[in-house]
Every structure is written in C-alpha cells, then in structure tokens.
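pls ignore typos typing on phone
magnesium ion + seq
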Amino acid sequence: MKKTSKSQIFQFDNTYINLPKNFYQKIKPVPVKKPHLLKLNNELSNYFNLDIDSLKSNLGISILSGNKVPANTTPLAMVYAGHQFGNFVDQLGDGRAVLLGEIIARNGKRYDLQLKGSGQTIFSRQGDGRSPLGPVIREYIMSEAMHYLGIPSTRSLSIISTGEVVKRERIEPGGILVRISSSHIRIGTFEFFRARKDFISVKKLADYTIKRHFPEILSSKNKYKLFLDKTIQSQAKLVAQWMNVGFIHGVMNTDNTSISGQTIDYGPCAFMNNFDPNTVYSFIDVYGRYSYGNQPKIMLWNLSKFAECISFLINENNEKANKIIINSLSKFSQLFDKFWNKSISEKLGLFENMKENRNLIEKFLEIMFEQKTDFTLTFRKLSESLENQEKKLKFFSLFKNEKHLTNWYNNWTERLEKEKYSKEKIAEKMKKKNPLFIPRNHLIEKCINDAVENSDFSMVNDLLEVLKKPFEYNKKLSFSDPPKPNEDIKNTFCGT
Ligand code: AMP
Ligand code: MG
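k done
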C-alpha cells in the first residue's frame, strides 16, 4: 500500500455513506476554539501507514480536532436505538461523535475513524455533543490496555484538548478522542429499524454488516442464521476474555454492544481488584445489572434482542425462525463455558484437559473470594510461585488464612506433575496468561488528575508504556500494586 501523501493525511474509502439516507445524518464536526494535540498513538499510526509528522502538523491537528474536514470524505453521525438497563429507547445515535470516514490498514482491514466529543448532531437530545478531557483520557488508556491484553477492542489514535470548557458536575476542560473501530454498527443499530418496522433497512444493514465483517458467509444459503451464530460466538468469546482479566464493562446496553465483536464505549468500566463476582463500579448501576459475574447473562440477553431483529431474515415463518433462534442462542452458554474454561485453566497452568481441573478451578476461585484477594496479583503470583521458594512465600502472603490454601496448593502442584512441561516452563507459560499490569482505577484517576489539573501527561505516558507489555516485568512495578485502602475507588462515572 502506498504511503498517504502529506497533503492528504488520510485516504478515506467510505462505504457506510452508500447506505440509505435514514441510516445517518451527514454532518461535520463542530469546530473548537484552540485545539492542542496531547497524545498521538504512534504504533496505531504506523498500523495505518499514516505519516506521523503530518498528523502532528497544523493540518493534522485541525483534522483530528474536527476543525477541518478533508475534501476526500463526507462525515456522518450514525443513527441507532438501544436497550439501556433493559428499557428500550427508540432514538439514540451519535450524539457527540462523528464518523469522519473509513480507512484501510496495512493488512487490508477496513476501520472507522471516529471523532468523539465533536459537537452536537441531530441525535444529541439534551446533550452538548462534547466530552470532558477526563473520560477521553480514560477511554484512551482503557482501550489501548485491552488491545495489548489481546482482547478485541476499539483503539485510540489521539487525544485533543479543545481549549473550551464543558459543564458537568463542575466546569471541565473539553477533549476529543479519535478512535478506530472495525465498525460502529451496534445491536442497537438493528433495533432502530426494527422498532420502526422498517424491514427493508434491517435487511440492508444485515447485508452490509455481513459483507463487511463476515464476507466468508456471503454466498451461504442460510447466511442470516450464520450471521447470528457468528455474532453469538464472538460475543461469548469476548465476555470470557473480559472476565479472564477481571474487566467489567459497566454499561452493557445493546447500543454499546458492537456487532464486530470488539469492546466498545468505555464509560464507567473498570478492572476488578479483589475477586468478587458481584463487583459493580458504575455509579448508575444501582441494581448491579452489569456486575462482573452477570456479564455472560446480559450478553445473552443482548443477543436475544439482536436475534429478534433479524428473525424474519432467518426464516419468513415465525415459528420456524423462533426454533432456529432458540437453538442458536442456547449454544451461547456452552460457548462461553468453553472459552472461559480453556482460559481459566491456562491461567492456572492446567494445559492438559483432565478431570481434576474443574475442582481445582472452582476451589481456587472460592478461596480467592473468601479471602478477598486481588484477582490479577493472585494469578500472577501463583505463576511466579513455581519459580522459587521466596516467590512461593510471597504468593502465600497474599492470603490471610493459609490452611485451605496449603491443601489446594499441594493438590495443584501434584496435578501439574501430569503436564508435559517442566515447572519452569509452566511458570513461563502461565505468566503469558496472567498479566502483571492492568489499568487499575486508582491509577487512571491519578493519570486524569495529573493531566487535567496540572497539564502533566507524564503518568499517562508511563502507564501506557507499561500497559503495552502487560505480561512482562517492568521496573515501574508500583503500577502493578492494588490500591491502598485510601486510594481505592469504589465508583466510576460515565462522566460524558
Ligand atoms: P453512551 O453513554 O456512550 O452509551 O451514550 C448513550 C447515548 O447518549 C448515545 O446516543 C450518545 O450519543 C448520547 N450522548 C452521551 N453523551 C452525550 C453528550 N454529551 N451530548 C450528546 N449526546 C450524548
Ligand atoms: Mg454508547
């Protein structure tokens, strides 16, 4: 692929715009007063073959801030609907975001380039279309961390400060995030048209999505059923991956569930510290609908909403369609269990599938829960405990009560004897499954505070560097520490 010329920083290749006019509003980002580039993602720029100097130039900054729209694109705001905390809202859409256009990566994959915080659109409802800088920094760090943990996610290209303020609980500086996504098609995009009984649009959207995300099934006779199955499969895997690193999305509304199988819309999300399946961080999630342990159940519910949308495409006969859908949805739990069991087994070094595994996994989680140990560190230190006696003692010191643990540990090491690898090799393999560094809440809060209050981005940069290699030892070891009691942050906010 040839490098984009300096006068044309992005080579857009837009397709969503070719869908009918009721799919979007053509709209330009609303210019901001004094854009300043606070962060540019060099790796991601390279992935797209973008010229870094051009991105940092005045022209680049004016494009990333929405002050200039390149001539080779037509920006738009996408329409969608969605179930929010279980209640259907029939009119949502990009209310503070604009799809600047689609770009193709070095490997030929198509992505959306979206400006978030880019001003009002017809979907803004009462919102101002803007975003404070804090949540922009939060999404940048979170999404990049997820990517480097190997979990499908939207990614972040840049952070712009706008030179304007936004009014929330208090007055805050404004920010714009440029984010990259496989697409921004959500379950809620399908729900929008279904709610209006606009079945022609549902079909057009389904055909577009299949062509974009699942081209391999395009010519299959039962492609819509396969579309559903593929979506179920990728979401079951995604939620298992989230849970394996202790991630809690926080607002799993259907409008925040991407059809591409990527994690999207980082609002009040957080990584769990102490293991407890009931953990909730989001301040607005009063009933714990989106708690850590509820995530598979909620994803299945979301998928049932998606299935309702494309039911008539799966089979014109309602009854037959229902039968097929129920059968497909019923596989979700099995799929989730398969993905979860495989990765939790690997976290425990149980690479061979043996009957003892289940009991060892359950018992370990039970002990972690009882003793309220830190999810991430417990797995990490367990891996390291195989390396030497000192590290074994360090692992044991995480627990208040060692009695049950000693029994478990002995059973575990006995079981490891049946693996085909040496202890050293098992430790090495386990460390590749158990991150040392995750973007803990208290760290993110400190990053945001330094950046917003003192214009100091050094901690953001340091944390991002460490999170690029989350499975490797780094001398900035304090980033791996759980919060001290006075640092612990129990609630997160959308803040948008
Ligand atoms: P989210 O919280 O990202 O799931 O957003 C839910 C809906 O609210 C979406 O339609 C957003 O576009 C819209 N929204 C959120 N914040 C704003 C804002 N500041 N201005 C306009 N619309 C917003
Ligand atoms: Mg959203």
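The chain has 16 helices and eleven strands. The mean pLDDT is 96. more later
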